[in-house]
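Bumping my old thread because nobody answered last time. Still need a sequence for this structure:
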């Protein structure tokens, strides 16, 4: 049984990626999967150390196969209940001479909207234009594929844990 509709090929330009997926679950359930740091860690494949709170730092380590051990660092921006969750996350090795917490960031938004039969989740990652051009191209390509995978991961997680 399909529990989501992958209804949009990601929109990509030089500054942002937009990925939309319809999930057959109430907004409240999808919201919990995004904003509860333990559930987020399960489907996103990252072990997080602390809950998400506006203005706080989120730290942890990636558990995604092939990327195990990579650091996770994000600053939580907005937590608007059942509507918007956003953060700025750091990119690794853009400038090798800088520590991880000084690496450039992009902004990730999770926007939720109630639709007939479930939730429309729109994931927007923006700010790529601030990255060096050589890095920007590969990061947009990699993250576009990553959001395709993560959109399915969250839908699967919500379906497996109603």
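Sorry it took so long. Here it is:
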């Amino acid at each position: 049984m399909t529990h989501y509709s992958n209804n949009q090929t990601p929109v990509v330009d030089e500054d942002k990626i937009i990925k939309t997926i319809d999930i057959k679950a109430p907004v409240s359930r999808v919201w919990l999967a995004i904003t509860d740091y333990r559930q987020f860690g399960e489907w996103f494949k990252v072990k997080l150390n602390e809950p998400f709170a506006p203005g706080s730092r989120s730290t942890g380590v990636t558990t995604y196969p092939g990327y195990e051990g990579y650091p996770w660092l994000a600053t939580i921006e907005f937590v608007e209940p059942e509507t918007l969750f956003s953060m700025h996350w750091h990119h690794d090795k853009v400038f090798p001479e800088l520590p991880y917490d000084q690496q450039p960031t992009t902004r990730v938004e999770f926007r939720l909207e109630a639709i007939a039969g479930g939730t429309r989740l729109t994931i927007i990652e923006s700010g790529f234009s601030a990255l060096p051009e050589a890095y920007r191209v590969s990061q947009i390509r990699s993250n576009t594929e990553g959001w395709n995978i993560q959109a399915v991961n969250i839908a699967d997680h919500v379906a497996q844990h109603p």
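Residues 44 and 150 are 6 Å apart (CA to CA). Let me know if any region looks off to you.
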